[in-house]
Amino acid sequence: MEELHRTHPMDTALKRQVLWYLYASFIALFIGTSFGPFQALEHARIDLYPFLRLNYYTGLTVHGVMNALVFTTFFISGLLTFLLVYGLQHPLYSLRLGWSAFWVMVVGVLLAAWSILSGNASVLYTFYAPMKAHPAFYIGLALVVVGTWLLSMNLFLTYRRWRRLNPGAMMPLLALGALVTFVMWDIASIGIAVEVVVLLIPFSLGWLNGIDPLLSRTLFWFTGHPLVYFWLLPAYLSWYALLPHQAGGRLFSEPLARLALLLFLPLSVPVGLHHQFTDPGVPEVWKGVHTFLTFAVAVPSLMTAFTVTASLEDAGRRRGGRGILGWIAKLPWGDPSVAAQLLAIILFAFGGISGIINASYTTNLLVHNTLWVPGHFHLTVATAVALSFMGIAYWLIPSLRGRALWSRRLGVVQAFLWFAGMAIMSRGMSWAGLLGAPRRTALGSAPYRLPEWNLPLSWAAVGGVLLGISAIFFFLNIALTVWRSREPVPLEVPLAKPRHEVERLPWWLDGLHPWIIAVGALIAVAYLPLLITLVAHATLQVPGVRVW
Ligand code: HAS
């Protein structure tokens, strides 16, 4: 029997703070996912938006902002605070700073939500200029970013104090994963901070005559692509450091896990131009450099596919699995936390492959701005990330509250339903995209709608409804765990042991400094010349538009 790792004997105060981050994330997810079935049904010509007195584009903005930006950010902030403190076995530097970050983010979200729901910011979650939203939308999003910076400061200060007390000690894997995620995010978010503070807020307040759409999009994607790894890395950390133990096995290789996580630091950032292949005004050479680097950033994910599968195979064989694939059936599929994460991993294989298709310049021209792209990102952020986070919530919320999950069976059903719904919906979207159906469009009422889109769009609608039911099961289970569950459980963190204990590591696998220098160098080579040219030629003259 593996030793169960008990948390640092500190704080109910820390637990409360982490729980509030998680609760806030679930409120955002609840609002965001509620709009999902409306989106999918609209595509099948069942438009329920008039009943809400909203339109498709407002609904899509709420859906994208609440799910992709707010749910993820709050969940990651809570989870990584907890994992860093647990990993270091060292108290958080400042609970007050943690709460300040929380409230700054909450105020930001309320401002952005008000501007969207009042019909003043239906600009979708990418808020491309020259669309012009109410200033409250941009100020709100800026506050959310400031909140993440405060939170990362707290994590870095915690680490620094631990390091002073433990000179020479190896940085635990959980802490390494948490710090890599936030260092990468802090560097990446500079792009969006400059875009919002220097361009969009003055633009929306009428202080600028107009905007330069190319400069603003380029700054957006400087942050926009690494953002997807900000979402993904906490899920990877769970797949590497926790899931193997939950499944009954060990981490296949800790050095390989560290190398994969660290590689994301330099490789995540200088790839944003793969979202701008069709933008005139970006020279081909930079698109080529970013294509190369996009293929490079798939490498740590391919390493993850290998290491995580090997760890799970170890678990399945220790549980009596035989033959080439017999170990898969022996994994504990009846554990909702494990089932959710395994299903997330399986669908991520398809999400990753579709990402590589997107990254190829010639095939990107075929799929860009079509429904293929939402087909891709519902397998990545809405499955690999969101379903993994649900799986993590199934052990973390009971552990933090000291009360058992209300229903394990409902959790397993919910995970399978999410898997099925997403597989069907994403297949429908990708199929329609290949037939030319555009994304970000109310297709139900589009006059150019082609008859051959009907079948795939009805697949998307069926998948969307299954996802809606799965979401209801998830929220029900969590709400009943919080309000009704009485069975006591101890705080246990399912930390996986490596197959081979690591006593010493090369210095470059035990610290972030060389990797931070590498990210600076890569940005200087792959982004700086383009950004300097765009700034030098910026013409802030395109007037704002309100297309909704
Ligand atoms: Fe992406 C667009 C390229 C990964 C999210 N992506 C998007 C957008 C989002 C998004 C939200 O190059 C839309 C943005 C918008 O609104 O315009 N993406 C990639 C590439 C990867 C990739 C190359 N994307 C992600 C992840 C996301 C995400 C991760 C969220 C978390 N993406 C693109 C491109 C576009 C794009 C273009 C622009 C498209 C356009 O034209 O607009 C790679 O990082 C993927 C690497 C992953 C793999 C898979 C590894 C597999 C694993 C599991 C294996 C499982 C096994 C089974 C073996 C190579 C780890 C195990 C067995 C068991 C029993 C469990």
Question: How much is the radius of gyration in Å?
Answer: 23 Å
Class computed from helices, strands and strand pairing: mainly alpha
Gap between N and C termini, in Å? 60 Å
Would you report the number of β strands? Answer: 2
Question: What overall form do the CA principal axes indicate?
Answer: globular
Bound small-molecule species: heme-as
Highest CATH level, the class: Mainly Alpha
Quote the CATH topology. Cytochrome C Oxidase, Chain A
Which band does the percent of strand residues land in?
Answer: under 5%
What is the tally of helical segments?
19
Mean pLDDT: 95
* CATH homologous superfamily label: Cytochrome c oxidase-like, subunit I domain
Question: Which parts are unreliable, with pLDDT below 50 for 5 consecutive residues or more?
Answer: 1-7
Q: How helix-rich are the residues, as a percent range?
A: 55-70%
Q: What string, H for helix and E for strand, traces the elements in order?
A: EHHHHHHHHHHHHHHHHHEHH
Looking at the overall shape, the CATH architecture is Up-down Bundle
Strand arrangement within the widest β-sheet reads 1-2
